[in-house]
Design a protein that fits this description.
This protein is mainly α. It is 60% helix and 8% strand. The chain has a three-stranded antiparallel β-sheet.
Length: 149
């Protein structure tokens, strides 16, 4: 998988904010969709606190590493999946996090069976798809395209 492509796609979906803001769930976030954690220097800082572009790149690089580790842990056949499938799943993992993506049991089974049509169905039949309909719609369409060969 081309990691530059992954970074570009996620940055486009997440947007880039050089200030602390509250995401759609009301959670403090900064940079490129980075959920602020207790260990982060930004923890406890008020909404509007600025970060540097370098800090944004640093957080994003760390988040991409975590995302790919999560995918490797969640999908037994991760390394055997087509690049496009990896890009789609990594985008979902970045957006949802490991614990929430891990609850997509039927999606995981479809991916392990390389049944991309069923994977697209499972993606569409989710709270996630209703929460981020534009992003989900694009990723679902891409998964369907994999099924169509």
């Amino acid at each position: 998988m081309n990691k530059d492509t992954l970074r570009e796609e996620i940055a486009a979906d997440e947007g880039v904010r050089l200030d602390v803001y509250l995401d759609h769930l009301g959670l403090p976030t900064v940079g490129i969709g980075h959920l602020i954690r207790e260990a982060d220097a930004e923890h406890g800082r008020p909404v509007g606190t600025q970060i540097t572009p370098e800090r944004c790149r640093q957080l994003f690089a760390l988040d991409i590493v975590v995302t790919l580790e999560d995918c490797l842990a969640l999908f037994d056949n991760w390394n055997d999946l087509p690049d496009e499938c990896q890009l789609i799943l990594a985008n979902m993992a970045f957006n949802l996090g490991r614990s929430r993506l891990g609850k997509f049991i039927k999606l995981k089974a479809a991916i392990e069976a390389c049944d991309y049509a069923e994977a697209a169905t499972q993606m569409a039949d989710s709270k996630w798809a209703r929460q981020v309909p534009n992003r989900a719609g694009r990723l679902i369409d891409r998964m369907k395209a994999l099924a169509d060969g």
